[in-house]
Amino acid sequence: MQDELFSVAGQIVLVSGGSRGIGRALAEGFASRDAQVIIAGREAATLAETAKEISRGTHDVAWEVCDVAKPEDVNALVTHVIDKYSRIDTLLNVAGVNKRMKAENYTLEDYDWIVDINLRGAFVMAQAVGRHMIGRGAGQIVNVDSLNTYAPLIGAAPYAMSKAGVLMMTRALGNEWGRHGVRVNSIAPGFFPTALTGKMWTQEKMLAWAHANTPLKKLGEVEELVGAAIFLASPASSFITGQTIRVDGGFTAGLNWPLEL
Predict the structure, then answer these.
(1) Any residues with CB less than 8 A from the CB of 54 and at least 6 apart, and which?
(2) What is the pTM (predicted TM-score) of this model?
(3) Cα distance between residue 121 and residue 156, in whole Å
(4) Catalytic residues
């Protein structure tokens, strides 16, 4: 028997960046707990395939094409979802991209691409959904933060900068919208092999470094992010807003050095 304290059954849940990686795992996690999930992304074919594969429970996962870097796409998406389902209970604000290179080698086009999707797009999405939630006096937004807001990794300066903005956006919106009954929190994943990062984790030296510095001695699996998202979308977190939960296997708990105890 499911504890109603952690139930998301019957919620209308919109997932940006829901066709692959973390977004897909979260969408499937909510769908399997009887939420009506709508995934959004840039590629219709990928969205349609993902929606078919992750549909669970009594509600088929729906999909909508949306490029969060285009405000007109975001506004059309939110309007259409509300017209069809009457409300949005939870927004999972996941869409994100990255390019790894030396900071001095990024072009302005590279920088704009990363920031427009990761930060500007996340804000536009939160703003569009937030207006609706403010009007209803209820709703939850869960953003995706990053390990890079604890300490930036080399080769990812614009990404780290964009995610630092997401962290502050989470706090700012949580602070400003709490009076309207809207809660805004974020999840900061540690190291998870996804389509965005999988190639990097095939390198033995990278895997050894991650294991050495993660107290749980492993990479995460995207399904291990579901619990935190369910918690933040459920009544169990009703007095939590403006916060970040770091799902990182303990990486940010402290520094690890090669000293045998």
Answers:
(1) 24, 27, 28, 31, 37, 61
(2) 0.96
(3) 19
(4) 159
